[in-house]
Each structure stands twice: as C-alpha cells, then as structure tokens.
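Ticket #4471: structure output looks truncated?

Reporter: J.K.
Steps to reproduce: submitted the chain below (165 residues) through the standard prediction queue, then opened the result file.
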Amino acid sequence: SGLLTRLQNPAPTTRTLSSSNSFSQNIASYLWKLGRLNHVAIAVPDLEKAQSLYKDVLGAQVSETVALPEHGVYTVFVELGNTKLELLHPLGEKSPIASFLQKNKTGGMHHICIEVDDIKAAMTELKKKKIRILSEEPKIGAHGKPVIFLHPKDCHGVLVELEQA
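Returned output as attached by the reporter:
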C-alpha cells in the first residue's frame, strides 16, 4: 500500500460541531451583534502627503479634512468600496494620535472600527465579560454616530472602536 494507493482512496473526513457549544448557540445569546467593518484607521505624520497618496497616486475618492476636537484628531476618509480607511492626524498636543506618532514616527495602523446594532447593550455585555471600555459613555464619532473604544490589552493588542450602525 504505497502513496499512490493512499491518494486514490483518501480517508473520509467528517467535521462536526459540539452541540453543547455550537457557533449559532453562542450568537443567539447576545442582545447585540457585530456588523460590518466600517473602517481601518491609520495615524499619519503628514496628512496632506497621505491624502495625496490615496487620491493622486492610487486614484481613490478622498474626503475633505474634518477636525474632531473632542477626539483630538483631524480625519480624512478614503472610500474603498467595501470599507474605508480613516487617516488620522493630531489636533493639539494632547491628542492620542500625537503620542502614537511619538512612538511610531512614520505612522501606522491605529485601530479598527466595527459597527454594532446596539452600542448600549454591547457596553453592558462587554463590561460583564471584563472587557475594558475607554470611556464611561459613548462619544459622537466622525460619522456623527455614538462610538466607544475597547482596551487593546483586552482585544489581543488591537484598539477596537465600536460604532452604532
């Protein structure tokens, strides 16, 4: 019984899910659910250069610059069809993006944003599960909708933003 015989008669494979912990049962227990990826945010040291890269070099549709003083950032959105990139630049010295850029001089990925259908229910459930939320209440984000940020140490090193859909 050589290799050729084994290739001609492969062993059957069966995949089963444990009925006590199936994927669908886990989802059904939530009072809220994750939606689509809204955007990936990139901190940039030079906003005009970054805008030019996406608009003039790559041909993307790029928004105007918007100041968000409550978050300490300037934002620009790059439309990608299935999602967006958010270019972030510091607004003021106390900006969280300023401290990010001090550690990452050339910029880099800052956070991901995922939509949720009920941000208040998500906050309640996540707190019960010991996931730290970086504010007591949602703030209004760049899209004019409530947002919260989850601590990266609780999310495998990724800063996660949840946005009310």
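Triage note (M.O.): checked the attachment and the full token line is present. Residues 34-164 form a domain with the 2,3-Dihydroxybiphenyl 1,2-Dioxygenase; domain 1 fold (CATH 3.10.180.10).
Status: closed, working as intended.
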